[in-house]
Amino acid sequence: MSESEKKGRGVSLRVLYLLLIVLTVLIATVLLVTTLFLANYYRDMEKATNEYIEMEKAASDLMDASDYLTECARRFTLEGGVEFYNRYFEEANVTRRREKAVEKLQSYPELKSAADRLQAALDGSRSLMEREFYAMKLVVLAKDYVGVGSELRDVVISVEDRTMDADKKMSKATQMLLDGEYFHEKDQIRKEMRESLNELEKTTKALENESSSKLQTGLVVFRIVIVLQFLAIVTMVWLTSSLGINPVLKAVEKIRDDSPIPEVGANEFKYLARTYNRIYAVYKRSLEHLNFKASHDELTGAYNRAGYELLMSGIDLPTTYMLILDVDNFKSINDTYGHEAGNKVLVKLVDLAKQVFRADDYICRVGGDEFVIVMGRMQESQRQLIIPKILEINEQLAKPEEGMPACSISVGLAHGSMAENVTDLFKKADKALYVSKRSGKHTYTFFED
What CATH number belongs to 305-446? Predict the structure, then answer.
């Protein structure tokens, strides 16, 4: 056999390389087409999910608006604040979140069943408004408001209710918004809401299942093409060293960014990455623990002076109430019962403050028995919400426990609207505390500008 015949029967590397390129291009083309189909299926599923989220938000808006109207009606009835009356009718007549939620859901024909349920919830909410109108009309009559109540002019008050004195009118108005019948109607609205969400979930689930089925089929095809492509390019991948270098380069980037290392690559590298990540996690936990100790009082768990100064650097002064308080006769407690008893008093005081104040209020220990409580999102007129908290703390402190005597606190309060800065606010609250001490202790004083 001649040399030329031997060459003709062999396979050219150049031809093989060209065939490999052609095969790779063909597989890449199939992959591209497959990904286009997958993208379409995914968009269908994403669309169904987004519609569900949007519709669920619309349904929740109706309940939120209904609850908001209830809250405004009750606050107006219990407190008589005209701003709650105005907020009520602004929501009912201007914002109209309930009606907009139903209109949005009704714009989707495939969600008719859910929209009907939501319409029933809206009808129930409107029915409940009749009771709220009546109660608020009683309050307007009882308080003898001038220039308030034009929205209620069509509400007819019975002769019996109209002839009642102001206290009885207020009592009946309160009862109408707190009795069992009112809560029953409210529960009916929530029931319709749940049914609407159930119907919405069923319809959306069906659409998602259809899109998911198509997506799964496309993924199977996609996986097959991926396998074929892998087999076609395995030689080129084998000729490169990127698989060994890339994990190291990524690890270096993550270390520079102070982040955990991805556990990819060879087993040995994964072992190194896991070991590094465990050490990194321990380091982060230790750092967080140190930060906590730096800003919190070790005895009581309240913020310490450093934590207080950090918190005060970011407060919204015009909507902040500051309370400065200390334990009455604390030195006498330490002298008579010992420092251990004094420490128990401080710990109990902080525990009680955490119980009665809001979770987002700041409790700080700025001195031996001196504490500062910072309440954000508070208007100056809301002082009546703070007084019961102080009284509750004093009531609990008055009960002696084993190893701890009965005691009390004095409190000074000031609102940020009266102060030029944080330092000025602290001084005013401290002056109010001084007045409480001079007034016989076991009391509270609001700073009056």
Answer: 3.30.70.270
